[in-house]
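ligand=2-hydroxyethylsulfonic acid
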Amino acid sequence: MSRIALITGATSGIGKATAEVFAKSGIDLILCGRRQEKLDEVSGTVSSQVRVTTLVFDVRDKGAVLAMIGSLPDEWKNIDILINNAGNAHGLGSLDEGDMEDWDAMIDGNVKGLLYVSKAVIPLMLERAKGHIVNISSIAGKQTYANGTVYCASKAAVEAVSEGMRLELTQHGIKVTNVAPGAVETEFSLVRFKGDESRAEKVYQGFDPLQAADIADAILYAVNAPARVTIADLTILASAQSAATVIYKKQ
Ligand code: NDP
Ligand code: 8X3
C-alpha cells in the first residue's frame, strides 16, 4: 500500500523538489502552500505518478492550519510522512535596525507555523502508532551569524523542536528527522532580499550551490530507511561550504 506525505512549502524550492522525488517513489502527496496556482503547477507535474491533493493555507494562521488539515477526507487522513518545510528568511540586518514585521514573519512562520502543522498531524499519527516527521532546519540553526540573528534563532528553535519531538514520539512508533541544509539555490534569497534578484543571485555566484533536489534526495533516503533505522540529524553542505558563513568562492 502506498504511503501518504503532507509537505508544507510545496510550491517552490526544497518542498517542490521533495514532492517530485516522492512522486517518483510512489508516495501519494498532500501539497500545501499559500500560492494555489503554484500548487496546481506542481500537482500537474506529479499527478500522473501518484494521487495528489492540495491545501492552501498560511502556516502562521493556526485556525486555518487546523481547519484545512482537519478537513481532509478519510482517504487522506492516514498521513505517514510530514515534511515541515515551509519557511523563509526575511531581511538580513542587525537587531537595532531590524524590521519587527520581518521578525514576526520568521518566528511565526518558521517556528509557530511548524508547531501548528505538527499539532494537526501528530494525533493522526498517534492513532495509528506510526509516522515520520521531517523538520527542515538549517546550518543557521546550528551556527548563528551576525545580521541573521532572528532567522538563526528560528532555526535553532526547529532544532530544539526536533529533539523534543523525538523524545516524545519515539515511544509511539513515530520517527523524527532533522535536516539542516547549507546554501541551497531556491527562492530563499529572493524572499530574504524582498524580490531583489541581483542581490539574490550573488548569494549563489562563484561556487556550485546545493540544489533543492539534493535535499529532496536526502529526505527520501531518510524516509526510506528500514523500520529499525532513524536518521536523526542530517547536515548537508555544498562542497564549497565549510560553515554557515564560510563559502569558498572563485573570484
Ligand atoms: P523557497 O522560498 O523556495 O520555498 C519556501 C516555501 O515555504 C514556499 O513553498 C512557500 O510557499 C512556503 N512558505 C513560506 N512561508 C509560508 C507561510 N507563512 N505559510 C505557508 N507556506 C509558506 O525556499 P526553500 O525551498 O529554500 O526553503 C524551504 C525551507 O528550507 C525553509 O524552511 C528554509 O528556511 C529552509 N532552508 C533553506 C535553505 C536555503 O539555502 N535555501 C538552507 C537551509 C534551510 P508559498 O509562498 O506558496 O506559501
Ligand atoms: C538558509 C541558509 O546560511 O543562508 O537557512 O542561513 S543560510
